[in-house]
Amino acid sequence: MNPSRLHMTLDARIVREHARGRWIGILGRLAPTLAPALARPGRHVPCPVHGGSDGFRVFRDVAETGGGICNSCGPRRDGFALLMWANAWGFRETLEAVARDLGLDTRQPRTIEPRPRPVVVSRPADDGGKDAGSAEAALRRVWSETLDPDDRQALPLRRYLSRRGIDAEPDPRVLRFHPGLAYYEDTRRVGTFPALVAKVSDAEGRPVSLHRIYLDRAGHKAPVAHPKKMMPPIGTLCGGAVRLYPACVTLGITEGIETALVIRQRTAMPVWAGISATLLQRFVPPPGVDLVVIWADLDRSGTGEQAARALRERLVSRGIRVALHLPKGPIPEGSKSLDWCDLWRLDLRAAA
């Protein structure tokens, strides 16, 4: 037998076992477009790939299996298959992403410890509840509690942006500050933290979710497992973005909000943030945009570059001009990636 194939099979077995019972969190983090379905296991919601009103659902045992079914494409029996379908990933890319999310090092043999089957519980009210009505209410509540970035209480946000080398002024209609937002891991409330809160709009410009970056008082990311989280959306995220500035004939697009702000600061170009490589790949520019400038992330897995190239290919096929920029490496030792925010901050340090 091919040794590399055996290694891949062993890795898949290990990762699958550790993912059992945790698929709701894994899928929500790696494929945010699945969030409406994950909030309502067993219930039909708009398909994250095809749109519509009720063409998709995850299975009731999604926490255990990670599976779901599209009315057009058929069932995806486990979380690996569902991620491959939702994100247009290959198996190896999916396996590595799930392993990283679980904090596993699949390069080393591990003994699988038996785990009890967990009790499946509802998502916390903080993340939107079980249906679209409560999800919308949660979004409205969180947004109503936010403050202008210039507010005196928003010092942690201003410190966070300053640490990333950003002094561009964000639009308070899109990006705001929450002085104390509850943070949950699955159903367990971990604590309350200040947070950057950004409005996420769909391809038509309608607000559908809020993206949160949890912080500490000193302006660092909060000491939690996943400081960046998307609230369950009330519509499809495919094609959407955080619309940080009004678009014109030229529009920049990035993965991260921080990168978008620093590009704006350096170029005066209107820039939107796609939030993740998955959503960046599916970004749809609004009517009137003639040139899309993709400011891609450079990461060791190649995910950011692959998503950027896929977006470029799709937009060019639709007659839209595209420019693609990648940071010039290398990626710093000990870092997983290099984005434009990192690059320019390193340049500033070198010039100091």
TrEMBL record:
<feature type="domain" description="DNA primase/helicase Gp4 N-terminal Bacteriophage T7-like">
    <location>
        <begin position="42"/>
        <end position="80"/>
    </location>
</feature>
<feature type="region of interest" description="Disordered">
    <location>
        <begin position="108"/>
        <end position="134"/>
    </location>
</feature>
<dbReference type="GO" id="GO:0004386">
    <property type="term" value="F:helicase activity"/>
</dbReference>
<dbReference type="Pfam" id="PF13362">
    <property type="entry name" value="Toprim_3"/>
</dbReference>
<keyword id="KW-0347">Helicase</keyword>
<dbReference type="Pfam" id="PF08273">
    <property type="entry name" value="Zn_Ribbon_Prim"/>
</dbReference>
<dbReference type="InterPro" id="IPR006171">
    <property type="entry name" value="TOPRIM_dom"/>
</dbReference>
<dbReference type="GO" id="GO:0008270">
    <property type="term" value="F:zinc ion binding"/>
</dbReference>
<dbReference type="InterPro" id="IPR013237">
    <property type="entry name" value="Phage_T7_Gp4_N"/>
</dbReference>
<dbReference type="InterPro" id="IPR055570">
    <property type="entry name" value="DUF7146"/>
</dbReference>
<dbReference type="Pfam" id="PF23639">
    <property type="entry name" value="DUF7146"/>
</dbReference>
<keyword id="KW-0067">ATP-binding</keyword>
<keyword id="KW-0378">Hydrolase</keyword>
<protein>
    <submittedName>
        <fullName>Primase-helicase-like zinc-binding protein</fullName>
    </submittedName>
</protein>
<keyword id="KW-0547">Nucleotide-binding</keyword>
